[in-house]
Amino acid sequence: MMAIAIIAVLAALAGPNFTPLIERWRVRSAAEDLTSTLYYARSEAIKRSGGVTIDATGGWSQGWKVTHTQGDTTADLQVSTAPTNITMAQSSNKEKLYVDRWGMLSETSGGTPAAMDILLYPYGKSTTDNSAIRLCIAGGGRIAQMKRGAACP
């Protein structure tokens, strides 16, 4: 009985120390999900000769989907659910990213490729939290992760 009491006390003391670890894991998981979605959208746009959109209507923290539009028909290619306890913001508050036939990303349909970034951090924390990650997306599609929400180079 004494051993169980000691283990319970140690577990109660160690519990709060796991919070930053869990937050870092959640942010990193959401960043990897979004990165894989961006790569998927680029490959589909090249395969389908453009018309691919990454749509985060309602905000990036609500999830996103990859769609393909051909003529008057729009089809969902991939749907990603909202990450848990994560706040996400795109640099210019756009809820759609467009991918042209060469796999270049832009913030407007038919627009010129542009660099952009998406910031991910734990809900209720600051953008410079140790767990924060900024995805820096070059116009050509290269994606870099910056720790602690640091500015893109």
Structural class: alpha+beta
Uncertain segments: none
How would you sum up the global shape?
Answer: elongated
What would CATH call the class? Alpha Beta
Radius of gyration over C-alpha positions, nearest whole angstrom? 19 Å
**Number of separate helices:** 2
Largest sheet: 5 strands, antiparallel
Average pLDDT: 88
Task: Count all strands and give the number.
Answer: 9
Percentage of residues in strands: 25-35%
Q: Give the CATH topology.
A: minor pseudopilin epsh fold
End-to-end distance: 57 Å
Fraction in helix: 25-40%
CATH superfamily: minor pseudopilin epsh domain
Family: Belongs to the GSP H family.
Domain General secretion pathway GspH: 30-142
Keywords: Cell inner membrane, Cell membrane, Membrane, Methylation, Transmembrane, Transmembrane helix
Membrane topology: Single-pass membrane protein
Keywords for this entry:
elongated; methylation; 153 residues; minor pseudopilin epsh fold; five-stranded antiparallel β-sheet; four-stranded antiparallel β-sheet; alpha+beta
Would you write up a description of this structure?
The chain has 153 residues and is α+β, with helices and mostly antiparallel strands. It has one domain (20-147): minor pseudopilin epsh fold (3-Layer(bab) Sandwich). Helices cover 28% and strands 31% of the residues. It has a five-stranded antiparallel sheet, covered by helices on one side. A four-stranded antiparallel sheet has the order 4-7-8-9, covered by helices on one side. The chain is elongated. It comes from Acidovorax delafieldii 2AN.
